[in-house]
Amino acid sequence: MDRDQKALFGNARRVVVKVGSGVLSYNGGINHNVVASISRQMAALTQGGREMILVSSGAVASGVAKIGLGRRPASMPEKQAAAAVGQAGLILEYELRFAEAGLKVAQILLTRNDLSHRTRYLNARNTLNMLLSWGVVPIINENDTVVTDEIRFGDNDNLSAMIALLLDADMLINLTDIDGLYDGDPRKNPSAKRLDIVPKITPGIEASSKGSPGAVGTGGMRTKIEAAKKSTASGVPMVIACGSQPGVLMDLFAGVAHGTYFVPKVDKLASRKRWIAFTSTTFGVLTVDDGAVKALVAGGKSLLPSGIVHVDGTFEVGAAVSVCDCHGAEVARGLTNYAADDIDAIKGLRSDVIKAGPGLHEYDEVIHRDNLVITLTSS
């Protein structure tokens, strides 16, 4: 582990740990030894002065074992029912293990709606901050029992990144059943090499992560890279490491390198901009010309009506929308000052022309730069 990594781990006070199903599962059920090990390590780090947040998979696997299905469910109703049965046992296991160290835990089950709507997002943050102030360890999972495709996170990798951003965490640790990111699939290519440090997530890095998910997990390496993009773009470093490695968390905070380390951007996004970029649900698309792309990306400008060439979607004032170039690539996300119909009426017009027209001019900007986040990444 280099000096910068050691410093970040040494200074990290608020840490999100995500544990995947591939780590927690054993013979169709829960690996109790792994749960005990991770709980002990997180308890020790908590008692050492850190605030630890756990995002844990495993409810479905726990339910499969309890019911005696002998296989992972294929249909959504089966998965939801298995999660309902398994979640209680999973949280009880954690509660017992943390209690051995004198710590209490709290269960939080979320859907995407809970984070994509600003008020509920703030409510979730307030609750989690209160739990941490009480010295309680939050244990978070997707609410699989009631979730639908429209409100799914889809995987706990992206959920863990959203929680790290929600809570302004200093570190995100993703514990999985493989010891890091490789330049190929090590299960198929014995010569594939592990990447110890990823300074920047390039298209090549993303391409190397596209493999089949494991038999238990839902995301695979692809969703871990998506999570790393969210966290590092917001200034939060992320590590992918092997969760079954004894003492892996204690090692990391002692300065011992494990897995793959993703280098964060130097400047952290403000909390509101993190929400706009990575958590809010977008309700439409504004297609802009090349001049507007340059003004937004290189100039840090607001989005003006004159640069908009097309409006897709039906949305009201204040909605989150995606801003795309003429080739369909997303450039930015932001909160609009106008409803969709009004933007359609003023698109391509200069502000002075709109002011002289019939009553649509309220703001010079369709999206003010304070409510705009650049999401375009260069290759």
Describe the fold and architecture.
The chain is an alpha/beta fold. It has 2 domains: 271 residues, Carbamate kinase, CATH 3.40.1160.10; 93 residues, PUA domain (Archaeosine Trna-guanine Transglycosylase, Chain: A, domain 4), CATH 2.30.130.10. Helices cover 40% and strands 18% of the residues. It is built from 15 helices and 15 strands. Strands 5-6-4-1-7-9-10-8 form an 8-stranded mixed sheet, sandwiched between helices. A hairpin with a 5-residue loop joins strand 13 and strand 14. The longest helix is centred in the first third of the chain and has 24 residues. The two termini are 26 Å apart.
Task: Give the helices and strands, then pairings.
Elements: H1 3-11, E1 14-19, H2 21-24, E2 25-26, E3 29-30, H3 32-47, E4 51-56, H4 59-67, H5 76-99, E5 105-110, H6 112-116, H7 118-133, E6 137-142, H8 156-166, E7 171-176, E8 197-198, H9 203-208, H10 220-233, E9 238-242, H11 248-253, E10 260-262, H12 271-279, E11 285-288, H13 290-297, E12 308-312, E13 320-324, E14 330-335, H14 340-346, H15 351-356, E15 372-374
Parallel strand pairs: 1-4, 1-7, 4-6, 5-6, 7-9, 8-10, 11-13
Antiparallel strand pairs: 2-3, 9-10, 11-12, 13-14, 14-15
Helix pairs in contact: 3-5, 4-5, 8-10
